[in-house]
Specification:
The complex is a heterodimer of chains A (135) and B (353). Chain A is an all-alpha fold. In chain A, helix 3 packs antiparallel against helix 4. Chain A is elongated and about 65 Å long. Chain A is built from 4 helices and no strands. By secondary structure, chain B is of the alpha+beta class. Chain B has 8 helices and 10 strands. In chain B, the strands form 2 sheets. A 5-stranded mixed β-sheet of chain B has the order 2-1-10-5-6. In chain B, strand 1 and strand 2 form a beta hairpin. Classes of the chains: A mainly alpha (135), B alpha+beta (353). At the A-B interface, helix 1, helix 2, helix 3 and helix 4 of A face helix 2, helix 3, helix 4 and helix 5 of B.
Chain lengths: 135, 353
């Protein structure tokens, strides 16, 4: 019953959306089909490759999460950095330097990760005893 | 290839349904405020409601980006499933694939066009609001059909400990994306969020979307404000406006693109101005700009906003005379409205019948 309700409401919304979209079909269709094409043929195989390397290298969950955060933020930054045809210039607006701020943010993230890794490793190994290290 | 992960997929699906649901409802609301159907009514209070609505709209979209990618990652192997041979199952299989394709197309379209729009970058030939609105209906419709198909799978899925770390990573990534952008509308995050698309203070401490130059505004030396209503009209000079009792109100400019900023606006309450010339004060009001062309050269203040004592014909911003980019000589600033409807460079006020 609840599935039928979802189906009916879904088909209704789809129909309305199609009706709205018909007059703009020629300009929107390339942008509609680009998503799955780029994802299925480029993004997903790339992720699969990276995933394989991470698994082989036995990379932990923290590094995987940090990689996901890095990739996601880089993706969200694309429209801010790559502006093929922007709106008219807006000289009154001092926008920030996105690449620099994002780089700072990600550096802080990876530095925190490295510090926590070092601390954990140190605790596990124990403090190094004096004179045992070859330098 | 990894085994299918129905639990992780359904959990991510639930999160995505919440994100897209919030995005859809807030988007519909914003659309209705800008193109009100006859039955629609939108109040002038709470003052910050539209700001919260648009903040939720853009941030739920941002959070959906990593969630959508994570979801597709868990179900990617299903792309390579071999179709069944028998006719009945083959038809069902094909229908499911078509429904999923529509879902993925529309979901990517909404997120990508939304992100480019907030960055004011337009690498396409369609009209963004119309296309984004139409595809939003496709996306929710496709989500509805998808839920109808997948509900039994989601209900019978058992938690999979191997995928727990992945789910946690996806959640953390969505949270990080939120913090990285929320500064557009949350003031105390403004300096923290590296990807807040409106981070600069702008002229007089408030960002601007449409500058006076972009709108081709030249204020004539003999500028005056015309007020018209059924049965009368009046003309007011800038000096007359300054001579009327002024009021200062702290109101946000809340853009449809999600960014927002509070400011102190000083000017004549619209209600008082209409009362001073003897025009009716309980009717909707159309406000027109010096701007000749453009979609937002005029706006209609519905009754609740026209009557609200906080709705100002503002002459000053943060203690200074309005700068050209903020609408000199005067602009409308009303509570709980989209920024694009806060008409600048006002030259004509008409009380509608």
């Amino acid at each position: 019953m609840i599935r039928l309700a979802f189906l009916v409401a879904g088909v209704g919304a789809l129909g309305y959306g199609c009706w709205l979209l018909v007059p703009q079909l020629t300009t929107t269709v390339p942008w509609l089909i680009a998503g799955p094409i780029v994802h299925d043929l480029v993004v997903a195989p790339l992720l699969a490759g990276v995933g394989l390397i991470l698994t082989r290298a036995r990379v932990g969950a923290a590094v995987r999460t940090a990689l996901m955060v890095t990739a996601t933020l880089a993706l969200i930054a694309v429209p801010l950095v790559w502006r093929p045809s922007a709106a008219p210039d807006n000289p009154g607006l001092q926008n920030r330097d996105y690449p620099r701020d994002l780089a700072l943010w990600l550096t802080a993230l990876w530095a925190a990760l490295a510090v926590s890794w070092l601390l954990r490793r140190r605790r596990r190994v124990g403090p190094p005893t004096a004179g045992t290290r070859n330098e | 290839m990894r085994a299918p992960a129905p639990h992780a997929a359904s959990r991510l699906g639930l999160w995505l349904a919440v994100a897209f649901g919030v995005c859809f409802v807030t988007g519909l609301l914003s659309h209705a405020i800008q193109h009100p159907p006859a039955w629609f009514w939108w109040p002038s209070r709470p003052v910050q409601l539209y700001r919260v609505n648009q903040g939720l709209h853009v941030l739920s979209g941002v959070a959906a980006v990593p969630l959508l990618l994570a979801k597709l990652w868990t179900v990617y192997p299903r792309l390579f499933l071999r179709p069944p041979r028998a006719f009945g199952p083959l038809v069902r299989h094909a229908a499911e694939r078509v429904a999923t394709l529509v879902l993925v197309c529309s979901a990517f379209f909404e997120l990508v066009t939304g992100l480019f729009n907030v960055a004011q970058s337009y690498p396409w030939r369609f009209f963004f609001p119309a296309a984004h609105y139409a595809v939003a209906w496709l996306a929710v419709g496709a989500i509805g059909v998808h839920v109808a198909i997948k509900l039994p799978v989601a209900r019978s899925a058992r938690p999979d400990p191997e995928r727990r770390a992945f789910l946690r990573s996806a959640g953390v990534t969505a949270a990080a994306a939120l913090v990285a952008t929320a500064g557009v509308t949350v003031p105390w995050l403004r300096s923290v969020s590296p990807l807040a698309w409106r981070a600069g203070p702008g002229p007089q401490g408030v960002p601007v979307n449409r500058t006076a130059a972009a709108a081709h505004i030249t204020v004539p030396d003999d500028w005056h404000l015309d007020v018209r209503w059924a049965g009368g009209s009046a003309t007011m000079s800038l000096a007359t406006l300054h001579a009327l009792r002024q009021r200062t109100a702290r109101l946000p400019i809340a853009c449809v693109e999600g960014w927002s900023a509070d400011a102190d606006w000083t000017g004549v309450p619209l209600r008082d101005l209409l009362g001073a010339v003897g025009a009716p004060t309980d009717r909707p009001v159309r406000v027109s700009s010096l701007e000749k062309a453009g979609l937002y050269a005029s706006s209609v203040l519905p009754r609740p906003h026209a009557r609200d004592p906080l709705t100002l014909l503002a002459l000053r911003l943060n203690g200074e005379t309005l700068s050209p980019d903020h609408g000199f000589p005067c602009r409308i600033i009303a509570p709980n409205r989209p920024g694009v409807l806060q008409t600048k460079w006002v030259t004509l006020i008409e009380v509608l019948p």
